[in-house]
Design goal:
globular; Rossmann fold; 11 strands; seven-stranded mixed beta sheet; alpha/beta
């Protein structure tokens, strides 16, 4: 049975980070559910609209992983979702995979304590918003425990492949990397 990944889109999300991750995870035969915060047609930071599969408020599943794209004000809008906060807290408590890229690690995960005691990265300039309990690194993609963080749009494929490696296996990630001409 395929694992389910919930990727949450809020107004102002970074399009490259969302669409790239959705695409790569689906190529890995993962079931990806794109959930919109407050509406199904969500517009990104650069004016590209994406139709989500479901409203986050209507989502009733128990995903194997939760992924948060960054972008501004997308990350702030993610942080403002009480429904997402509950799903994120449950994922953290259940030891599910949590991925966040760009501003999302600092703006969404850090205030909730998800990154406490962990190594993490984020978009340049947002590291000051990380809690003092987070060990910031400038690595492009960082995995610590069940949390994967990444820097931004230019690291989206690496981020997605790391999620594939963790959810499906390193062989599948390597195969996709080759097919996508990443390395």
């Amino acid at each position: 049975m395929s694992k389910t990944v919930l990727i949450v889109l809020a107004e102002g999300f970074e399009e490259i980070e969302a669409v790239t991750v959705i695409d790569v995870l689906r190529r890995a035969d993962l079931e990806v559910v794109a959930a919109g915060v407050g509406k199904k047609e969500v517009t990104g930071a650069h004016g590209i609209s994406v139709k989500a599969d479901i409203l986050i408020e209507a989502y009733r599943g128990d995903p194997d992983a939760l992924v948060l794209p960054g972008g501004m004000p997308g990350a702030e809008n993610l942080r403002g979702s009480e429904v997402l906060a509950k799903i994120l807290e449950k994922a953290k408590d259940d030891g599910k995979w949590i991925g966040a890229i760009c501003a999302a690690p600092a703006v969404v995960l850090s205030p909730m304590g998800v990154l406490d005691g962990k190594r993490a990265t984020c978009y340049p300039g947002y590291e000051g918003q990380l809690s003092s309990k987070v060990h910031f690194t400038m690595d492009r993609v960082v995995t610590d425990g069940f949390v994967v963080t990444s820097r931004g749009p230019g690291t989206a494929i690496e981020f997605a492949l790391e999620l594939v490696s963790r959810l499906v296996g390193p062989e599948k990630a390597a195969k996709l990397s080759s097919q996508l001409l990443v390395k």
